[in-house]
Amino acid sequence: MASRHTTFRLNTGEDIPAIGFGTWQDENAQEDAVLTALSAGYRHIDTAAVYGTEKAIGRALARSRLSRDELFITSKLWNNKHRPEDVEQAIDQSLKNLEIDYLDLYLMHWPAAFAPGDDMFPKDSQGNSKTVDIDYVDVCVTPGMILASCAKYHSRHTKRWRNSLNPERLKLSEFQISQKGKWKGCLRAAP
């Protein structure tokens, strides 16, 4: 990481740039947008499989003159890949799309699991999201894998997370509570 960029130390020991460049929307514009962001000094690129922009970002990273160790790349696991047996394949696909060997941070995009398969937004016969009951903690501790973080949880998940984490298997680097105001400031220390 270039020293002129402000970073924050995660409890995993990694430094994350204070400002990241988000890549949601408009796959066709992402390659040039990411190159422009990198030229402007951004070093954290945030993407997700569901955005459909990983391949364009990969092309931009390949065209940039920056070495991989100068960058911080975040991607996210989408809801249709929450089964433990699907997580590694999802990570591998993101790495292939991004044309990189590793991710600095891999987040669970949302704790609700959709029905597994290629359809990113499966629907039932009434047109509602087709969800399944998969424990998000089990997703993150898939045997042989260590994910740096999982994100965006409702306050009811807080106790379960704190009681379920084994620091030898999973280091939590981000914990985002989706509850307005109620939890502000309560998670100052690492859970």
TrEMBL record:
Residues 19-113 form the NADP-dependent oxidoreductase domain. Catalyzes the initial reaction in the xylose utilization pathway by reducing D-xylose into xylitol. Xylose is a major component of hemicelluloses such as xylan. Most fungi utilize D-xylose via three enzymatic reactions, xylose reductase (XR), xylitol dehydrogenase (XDH), and xylulokinase, to form xylulose 5-phosphate, which enters pentose phosphate pathway. Signal peptide: none annotated. Pfam families: Aldo_ket_red. Its EC number is 1.1.1.307. One of its GO terms (molecular function) is oxidoreductase activity. This is D-xylose reductase [NAD(P)H]. Transmembrane segments: none annotated. InterPro entries: AKR, Aldo/ket_reductase_CS, NAD(P)_OxRdtase_dom_sf, NADP_OxRdtase_dom. Keywords: Oxidoreductase. PANTHER family: ALDO/KETO REDUCTASE. It catalyses: xylitol + NAD(+) = D-xylose + NADH + H(+); xylitol + NADP(+) = D-xylose + NADPH + H(+).
